[in-house]
Amino acid sequence: MAKQSVKKNYIYNVLYQILTIITPLITTPYLSRTLGAENIGIYGYTLSIVNYFILIGSLGVTMYGQREIAYVQDNRNKRSKVLYEILIMKCITMFIALIVFCFIFCTRNEYSLYYQILIIEIIANMIDISWFFQGLEEFKKTVIRNTIIKIVSVVAVFVFIKTIDDLYKYFIIYVLSTLLGNLSLWFYLPKYITKQKIKSLNIFKHLKPTILLFIPQIAVQVYTLLDKTMLGILSKDMATVGYYEQSQKIIKTALVIVTALGAVVAPRIASIISKGEEKEVNNYLSKSYHFVWMIGFPIMIGIIGISKTLVPWFLGEEFLPSIPILMIGAVLIISIGLNNVSGIQYLIPAKKQNLFTKSVVIAAGVNFGLNLLLIPKFNAIGAICSSVVAETLIIFIQAYDIRKDINLKIIINGSVKYIIGAIIMLFPLLIIGKISQPTMITTLFQICIGALIYGEYLLIIKDKYLYGYIDKIIKKIKKEPA
């Protein structure tokens, strides 16, 4: 099959990520005021519980399946066989997880109604085949699917969520959007596969390698899901979970820009590694690291600079405790961005998941311990500090593990200029925030000023990556017919 361009895939992914950014900008302020901090906390807490079962049931299939399809993406019969084998195995394990979930949480529980609705979320993940198309580097299809579903779900939020009692409706909108989105990809499937005889399939040969990837994913969830779970249990205050949940939404919204490249680069690197083209791998990774530095630092510093003007109008006065959580959590923009390059873009495609596992297991253990110590005393502040420490620890562990494969000195030296530019940008943002009222106009003005200052700085220092992108755009425009 024809190889998809990384640039085109990145554009498709970025366009969807832009929609992902716009969506919470539209719905989050409305939901924060309509449902309130406590209901938002219940939503975050119960969703964190069901995600454990989804994680356990899927056994790391998403990353493993994407990688295995990438290895055989040019062979229709082989990729068909891999799809059948992995999908059947996933359905079996997800069904077991579903039964256990229903037995434990769906009866005689304070939040039974919400857990019963979330059964659909488990089923939706059971039939998810997006990893197949990502392995084929067919990002256009997943982007179109996700875009339509996102738009429909946004409209549904404003149509059906009217009062504080409509939390169950929000759950229904969430799970149905996931289910319909995953079902839609099945219509494309016949074009890419051929039927396989059940007797020819070796379903459980994939069990061991998926478990090897499952272990680090479990560890990762300690500081992506367990924070909310432990906040709910240790603080016994769902409003606190709500403050944490909404600040994390803002951080995750910003993160999609930084990590968008990773989704399209990982399958390409897997394909390149299978062909033994090591120099090309280094080239891709070097660009990915510099992309994180160039984009991540201004976003991180920018969030710190605008937090005090953003939260009051965006989330509402009830969510003012989210401000310090957001400012501390901004560090995750850089740490998760770097970990995405070293872990998801390199270690997993290179089949060095043992090193990936080691780093996240160690960090997860540290995070869990810090949560136990800090959450009872500092609540959500303690949880976000634990996450920052954990993600930062992963950077150092993975950097040590890949030091012989990647020239880290050049990459680290290349980050200094971006740090300086982001810090220069920070001071005007703080001054504007101090002398102005916390309104949407103030925040937008801060963002525009910050972008102008940072962009001008990159032009002044003649950043080769920025100039490289500009040159490519100019050349493309000149090639376009009049």
Low-confidence runs of at least 5 consecutive residues: none
Domain module count: 1
Question: How much helicity do the residues have?
Answer: over 70%
Share in β-strands? under 5%
Shape assignment: globular
Calculate the mean pLDDT score and round it: 85
What is the terminal-to-terminal distance? Answer: 33 Å
H/E series, N to C?
A: HHHHHHHHHHHHHHHHHHHH
Structure class: mainly alpha
**How many helical stretches?**
20
For the report, how would you describe the main beta sheet? Answer: none
- What Rg, in angstroms, do the CA atoms define? 22 Å
| Overall strand count | 0
Indicate the topology.
Layout: H1 6-58, H2 61-71, H3 76-105, H4 112-117, H5 119-126, H6 130-135, H7 139-160, H8 167-184, H9 207-222, H10 226-235, H11 238-274, H12 278-314, H13 322-329, H14 332-347, H15 353-378, H16 380-401, H17 408-413, H18 416-435, H19 440-460, H20 464-479
